[in-house]
Design goal:
mainly alpha; 70% helix; 6 helices
Length: 96
């Protein structure tokens, strides 16, 4: 997930890669990382989005697509929920 956060991961695809049942994988992953695999993926994507917003001039739509968000509005909502500000305002504030 760290290597390719834009990939379309599902719990089933991760279980298959790990060679574990859904239940065992979910329990093991949560014990190791303190959250579910899909929550960790969301957090990794949003952290990368924060970096791209503050270090590049890429459009929001491009950043969202690069990180696996198929909907700009879903990305916008997830970012705002995580950071308390929409992506445009967040980037503008940090860039000065």
């Amino acid at each position: 997930m760290r290597k390719d956060p834009a990939r379309n991961y599902t719990l089933d695809s991760l279980c298959s890669t790990a060679g574990m049942s859904r239940t065992v994988f979910h329990k093991s992953f949560t014990a190791a990382y303190g959250c579910s695999p899909l929550v960790l993926l969301r957090d990794m994507r949003l952290k990368k989005a924060e970096e791209l917003l503050t270090q590049t001039d890429l459009p929001i739509k491009t950043i969202a697509a690069r990180l696996g968000y198929r909907s700009r509005s879903y990305f916008w909502s997830a970012f705002k929920q995580a950071y308390g500000s929409d992506p445009d305002s967040y980037a503008s504030c940090l860039r000065g």
